[in-house]
């Protein structure tokens, strides 16, 4: 046994029991080893067993699963041979864990400080006062706001990115020698992810702890790892040094993963030579939730002054971070949420604001496809029933004619006809998303609103769905609004792009305009935050730099919404005057005080 | 900064509690209307009924006037409600004395029985509930599950009969008829009410324990509990320090629901053991169609239920940092 | 269909199998019981009152010397039949109202839910006592009273389910498709509530059995000459001091029925949450 190896896993097998009581392996034959201070990344799609393996390094298996074989050596201990009490001694002490979703991994009823210092207290490592002082020090190192008082808050008072960093503080309070990070940035927006990654890299890795980093995102892993282990269906597909896996993958599966992670730019299909009348037009739309007040704004305003057009046959990409109001735009167009003001025109005619008053034909022409096919398809219905409903509802198709059409649709989305009588429950995520798409197509719509249709899917499956959508678009000439939080996807498949920040359009323009600088400062941050698949990107990227100090912010309601985070803000201007909408020479329009000249140096 | 937010949070919680209190009062008012409508307006003419079919219309009219039945419904409702609030809910038709006196005699008995049963039931239920949650899926848990599952479905009179069979027929420890009077010593009193307490507790414990277990288990599946395990926190500390602060609200809610059962639901136990409580008084009121007495009893039980639920909700507000410190 | 039901029954844990057996047993007794009774229900056939178990009278005799087994077989029909009908009525009414509230928007939902919340804060035994006092207790009225008492509980659970489901994406899709409210309630929401609703139906049934036999025990339920299981306990209450079989038998009968239903619901595994009895 080599002295230099800190962690060594050999022949690890974890089993679980299915409903019928049979034991089956979730992961098996796992071997890897790492030296003190190294970072090893476990990468794979959902269900590939990443978290299961990560947890075994704490000697833990989720209820229902058992560590059935192999050895897990950390330092001088073999975790498979330790009893409960001995494991508890190691956990949160010499081995620490950073969970996937910090938002749910913190106890909602206890203060942050209580939870952060708990590992130090229960393992009797230091007195309370010293632990608190050390926690504050860590908060500061992790670039958290208000490091001295943030500990008094409760989890619900903090953002996801902050909680994720606080989770790191909790892990580091005992100076562990091994840290397990389980998808620590997956739940975050890219622009937040980069901040958290920086903090992790600065604090976790540079303290010399050995780390295991679990992720599905190769580009993130490229920033962190010395070694990469690629998993699929509970087995190791390929393992090796990070540079080798990233630049010269040997395994086919790794190659597919790499390919899917970098979406190919699809040539826009030739526009159909129709008079260039816009199919959809939105004028001066404001929308939100809650009662509409006297000033004409809803109690919880979400969208402000949205203006957009989509040409017949074109695809408009809508991009923005979580909560920016992307889905709300789709809901307004579909009639699910009447706007507070403004108009939605379809083919030149104004749609009634809500569901009431829309004709069946108007309903038919706009179809909505939701993100999560698990919840978008009624689990009580069969595939055939789901697809037949719009056929009967809009086109009066019944009996055999309807069945023929359903079969055609299944063919169109490349699914076998045998699925027709299957209940939804048994289908895979990708199959469900195809059915979800086919249901919209069954209406024979003019416009489909696709809300994050690939976000819930693994990259490889998602890439196939995008492929299918591109094909359908070529064949059927359907106009699409494509909502996504992922700028690379949007850049790959859309003709025009709209960037949304906190409910305002900050930049709009053709796809080409998003390939070249200058950008609106938020677009710049968004693009600059997308990790690149090479080591060293994190250090080089300037995205997420701290905004310069500014004076007092006036209470004008239409000030730039990006002001608090903007690295290009101008004191005396941005904090007093609402920004104008102005064109850039590259072809886009931005909402900013800066123009072509002043943005260039960014 | 944190201090300021907590202070404003505290006042937010107070507002919330105030609202909750107002809503309870409103509900109580609506309940009183419902009970009044059902008891007074729907069943037809009380005067006619009192006099029987042979009475002349004049006699009926006279009695109606005497009983105040010729006044419009809302006037009668308001005067009844005013009476309730001021502690004079009218004259008991059967006992021929003020309802307030009849009730004053019985209410303390009921409260005492409920309090003693709660004293027995709450700790036992908590222990069973938390214990079986910690042993989830194990032998003890499964056995307790079957036992409590059965107990919640068993009729009170079976529990009572079995208790009598065991403790007074076989063992001859306890009397089978409850005796409670003010001139009894505590020892005799307790012996007298042991059987009703036992019966009530058995039923309430099962209910409470199940709800407690459910509340604890609901929390056990949360990611923060797994996180605590991975921090090396010991099981007992996990339950006490991590789970309890989150489970306290549903547990108190379960307690409140079960305690409300100890008052109004004790009808059968009181009747079986001849215990002079409020619930059996209400049964007498039903048998003799003594509406003023019946309405007053019903209102007391509803008010008790609402108070208990109010306490549970206030606990929930105070236990939840989201509501306490916004 | 039959085969799959059989498969499922086989997959139940022991407690579930016991529960299922008890439920089937009592359903059979409710249907065929009176035909199997060894003696006429009202006949005085034993020489002694409160006889113990004997070859002639399997469950002994009652306070008037009637055959307890025969009375039990006929009483079960009242208990099971009334409770099943009332539970069905309560569940369908509650669920129909809940669906209306879920798809009807705040204007329908708020007043309805407020009203139901108010009714729910009248403890069920108290509520039924007031109703019995006001309306009396013929068999038909008892059925209505029991059903009415448990509508709010079912409504609360069904509404919570329906409101959650109404937020689901597939319901939003159906709304955006232009579907009417009725279609949404019946075709999109209801099918996904069936399992918890069945469990709730079982629970309501148990509550109603306990309520009705409790009322009968108090002399406020099923009136002589009709007698349900609760009435049998009441008739023989004078035997309590000696722990007579005549009082134990009907009480045990009720318990096996309700416990059986409970065990079955628990084993199937989608138990709803009720307010308790
Ligand atoms: N029913 C609602 N009531 C009140 N606020 C809501 C409601 N639905 C959404 N919001 C708020 O509106 C804002 C925009 O929500 P929306 O769902 O449109 O965001 P999104 O950009 O689609 O985000 P995501 O990427 O997370 O899907 C958010 O702040 C959200 O909290
Ligand atoms: S207006 Fe000012 S604050 Fe807003 S994006 Fe432009 S520079 Fe930044
Ligand atoms: Mg969204």
Automatic annotation (TrEMBL), chain A:
PROSITE patterns: ABC_TRANSPORTER_1, ABC_TRANSPORTER_2. GO terms for molecular function: ATP binding; ATP hydrolysis activity. Its main location: membrane. SUPFAM superfamilies: P-loop containing nucleoside triphosphate hydrolases. InterPro entries: AAA+_ATPase, ABC_transp_ATP-bind, ABC_transporter-like_ATP-bd, ABC_transporter-like_CS, Oligopep_ABC_C, P-loop_NTPase. GO terms for biological process: peptide transport; transmembrane transport. Pfam families: ABC_tran, oligo_HPY. It is a peripheral membrane protein. Keywords: ATP-binding, Nucleotide-binding, Transport. Residues 7-258, 280-527 form the ABC transporter domain. GO terms for cellular component: plasma membrane. It is found in: Cell inner membrane. Transmembrane segments: none annotated. Belongs to the ABC transporter superfamily. PANTHER family: D,D-DIPEPTIDE TRANSPORT ATP-BINDING PROTEIN DDPF-RELATED (PTHR43776:SF7), TRANSPORT ATP-BINDING PROTEIN (PTHR43776). NCBIfam families: oligo_HPY. This is ATP-binding cassette domain-containing protein. It comes from Sphingobium terrigena.
Automatic annotation (TrEMBL), chain C:
Residues 76-265 form the ABC transmembrane type-1 domain. Gene3D superfamilies: MetI-like. The chain crosses the membrane at residues 20-47, 80-106, 126-151, 201-223, 243-265. InterPro entries: BP-dependent_transpt_permease, MetI-like, MetI-like_sf. It is a multi-pass membrane protein. The keyword Transport applies. It comes from the Bacteria. One of its GO terms (biological process) is transmembrane transport. Keywords: Cell membrane, Membrane, Transmembrane, Transmembrane helix, Transport. It comes from Sphingobium terrigena. This is ABC transporter permease. Belongs to the binding-protein-dependent transport system permease family.
């Amino acid at each position: 046994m080599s002295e230099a190896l800190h962690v060594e896993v050999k022949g690890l097998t974890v089993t679980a029991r299915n409903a019928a009581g049979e034991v089956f392996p979730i992961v098996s034959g796992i071997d890897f080893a790492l030296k003190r201070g190294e970072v090893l990344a476990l990468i794979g799609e959902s269900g590939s067993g990443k978290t299961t393996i990560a947890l075994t390094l704490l000697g833990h298996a989720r209820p229902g699963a058992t560590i059935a074989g192999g050895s897990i050596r950390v330092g001088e201990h073999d975790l498979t041979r330790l009893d409960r009490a001995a494991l508890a001694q190691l956990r949160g002490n010499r081995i620490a864990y950073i969970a996937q979703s910090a938002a749910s991994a913190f106890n909602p009823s206890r203060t942050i400080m209580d939870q952060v210092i708990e590992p130090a207290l229960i393992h009797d490592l230091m007195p309370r006062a010293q632990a608190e002082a050390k926690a504050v020090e860590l908060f500061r190192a992790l670039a958290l706001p208000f490091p001295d008082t943030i500990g008094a808050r409760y989890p619900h008072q903090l953002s996801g990115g902050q909680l994720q960093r606080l989770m790191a503080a909790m892990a580091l309070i005992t100076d562990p020698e091994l840290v397990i990070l389980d998808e620590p940035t997956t739940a975050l927006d890219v622009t937040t992810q980069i901040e958290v990654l920086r903090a992790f890299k600065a604090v976790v890795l540079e303290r010399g702890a050995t780390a295991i980093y679990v992720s599905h995102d190769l580009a993130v892993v490229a920033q962190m790892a010395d070694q990469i282990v690629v998993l699929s269906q509970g087995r190791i597909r390929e393992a090796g040094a990070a540079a080798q896996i990233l630049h010269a993958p040997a395994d086919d599966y790794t190659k597919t993963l790499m390919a899917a992670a970098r979406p190919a730019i699809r040539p826009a299909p030739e526009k159909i030579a129709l008079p260039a009348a816009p199919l959809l037009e939105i004028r001066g739309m404001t929308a939100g939730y809650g009662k509409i007040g006297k000033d004409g704004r809803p109690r919880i305003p979400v969208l402000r002054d949205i203006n957009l057009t989509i040409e017949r046959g074109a695809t408009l990409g809508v991009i923005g971070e979580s909560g920016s109001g992307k889905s709300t735009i789709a809901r307004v167009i579909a009639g699910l949420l009447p706007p507070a003001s403004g108009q939605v025109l379809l083919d030149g005619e104004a749609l009634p604001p809500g569901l009431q008053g829309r004709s069946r034909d108007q309903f038919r022409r706009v179809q909505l496809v939701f993100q999560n096919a698990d919840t978008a398809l009624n689990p009580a219905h069969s595939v055939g029933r789901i697809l037949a409903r719009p056929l009967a509802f809009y086109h009066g198709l019944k009996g055999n004619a309807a069945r023929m059409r359903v079969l055609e649709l299944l063919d169109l989305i490349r699914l076998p006809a045998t699925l027709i009588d299957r209940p939804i429950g048994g289908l895979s995520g990708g199959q469900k998303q195809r059915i979800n798409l086919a249901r919209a197509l069954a209406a024979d719509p003019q416009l489909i609103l696709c809300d994050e249709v690939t976000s819930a899917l693994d990259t490889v499956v998602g890439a196939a769905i995008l492929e299918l959508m591109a094909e359908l678009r070529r064949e059927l000439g359907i106009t699409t609004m494509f909502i996504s939080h992922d700028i690379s996807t949007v850049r790959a498949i859309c003709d025009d792009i709209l960037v949304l920040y906190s409910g305002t359009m900050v930049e709009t323009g053709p796809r080409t305009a998003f390939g070249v600088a200058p950008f609106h400062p938020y677009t710049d941050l968004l693009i600059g935050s997308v990790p690149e698949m090479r080591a060293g990107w994190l250090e080089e990227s300037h995205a997420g730099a701290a905004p310069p100090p500014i004076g007092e912010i006036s209470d004008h309601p239409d000030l730039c919404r990006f002001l608090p985070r903007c690295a290009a803000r101008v004191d005396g201007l941005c904090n007093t005057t609402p920004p104008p909408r102005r064109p850039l020479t590259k072809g886009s329009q931005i909402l900013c005080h800066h123009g072509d000249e002043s943005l260039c140096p960014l | 900064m944190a201090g300021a937010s907590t202070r404003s949070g505290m006042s937010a919680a107070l507002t919330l509690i105030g609202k909750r209190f107002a809503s309870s009062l409103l509900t109580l008012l609506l309940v009183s209307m419902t009970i009044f409508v059902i008891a007074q307006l729907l069943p037809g003419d009380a005067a006619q009924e009192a006099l029987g079919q042979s009475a002349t219309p004049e006699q009926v009219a006279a009695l109606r006037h005497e009983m105040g039945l010729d006044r419009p419904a809302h006037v009668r409702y308001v005067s009844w409600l005013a009476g309730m609030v001021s502690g004079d809910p009218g004259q008991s038709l059967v006992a021929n004395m003020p309802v307030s006196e009849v009730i004053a005699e019985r209410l303390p008995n009921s409260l005492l029985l409920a309090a003693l049963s709660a004293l027995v039931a709450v700790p036992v239920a908590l222990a069973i509930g938390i214990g079986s949650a910690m042993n989830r899926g194990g032998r003890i848990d499964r056995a307790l599950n079957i036992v409590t599952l059965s107990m919640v479905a068993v009729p009170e009179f079976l529990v009572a009969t079995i208790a009598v069979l065991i403790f007074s027929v076989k063992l001859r420890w306890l009397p089978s008829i409850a005796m409670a009077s003010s001139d009894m010593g505590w020892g005799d009193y307790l012996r007298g009410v042991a059987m009703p307490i036992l019966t009530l507790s058995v039923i309430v414990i099962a209910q409470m324990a199940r709800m407690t277990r459910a509340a604890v288990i609901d929390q056990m599946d949360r990611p923060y509990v797994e996180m605590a395990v991975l921090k090396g926190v010991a099981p007992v500390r996990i339950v006490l320090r991590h789970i309890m602060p989150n489970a306290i609200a549903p547990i108190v809610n379960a307690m409140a629901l079960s305690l409300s059962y100890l008052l109004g639901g004790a009808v059968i136990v009181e009747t079986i053991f001849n215990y002079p409580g409020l619930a059996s008084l209400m049964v007498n009121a039903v048998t003799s169609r003594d509406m003023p007495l019946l309405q007053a009893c019903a209102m007391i039980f509803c008010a008790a239920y609402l108070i208990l639920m109010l306490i549970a909700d206030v606990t929930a507000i105070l236990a939840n940092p989201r509501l306490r410190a916004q | 269909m039959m085969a799959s039901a059989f498969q499922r029954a086989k997959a139940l844990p022991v407690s579930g199998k016991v529960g299922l057996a008890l439920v089937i047993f009592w359903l059979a007794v409710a249907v065929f019981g009176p035909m199997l009774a060894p003696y006429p229900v009202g006949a005085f056939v034993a020489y002694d009152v409160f006889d113990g178990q004997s070859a002639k009278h399997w469950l002994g005799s009652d306070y008037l010397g009637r055959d307890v087994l025969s009375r039990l077989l006929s009483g079960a029909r009242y208990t099971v039949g009334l409770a099943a009908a009332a539970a069905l009525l309560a569940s369908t009414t509650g669920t129909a109202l809940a669906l209306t509230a879920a798809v009807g928007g705040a204007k329908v939902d708020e007043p309805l839910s407020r009203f139901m919340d108010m009714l729910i804060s009248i403890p069920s035994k108290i509520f039924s006592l007031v109703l019995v006092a006001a309306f009396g207790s013929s068999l038909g009225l008892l059925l209505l009273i029991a059903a009415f008492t448990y509508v709010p509980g079912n409504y609360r659970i069904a509404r919570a389910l329906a409101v959650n489901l109404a937020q689901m994406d597939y319901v939003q899709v159906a709304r955006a498709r232009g579907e009417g409210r009725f279609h949404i309630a019946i075709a999109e929401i209801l099918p996904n509530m069936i399992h918890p609703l069945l469990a709730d139906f079982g629970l309501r049934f148990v509550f109603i059995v306990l309520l009705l036999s409790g009322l009968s025990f108090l002399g406020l339920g099923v009136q002589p000459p009709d007698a349900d299981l609760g009435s049998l306990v009441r008739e023989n209450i004078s035997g309590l001091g000696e722990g007579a079989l005549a009082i134990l038998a009907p009480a045990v009968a009720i318990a096996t029925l309700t416990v059986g239903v409970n065990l079955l619901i628990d084993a199937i595994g989608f138990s709803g949450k009720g307010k308790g009895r």
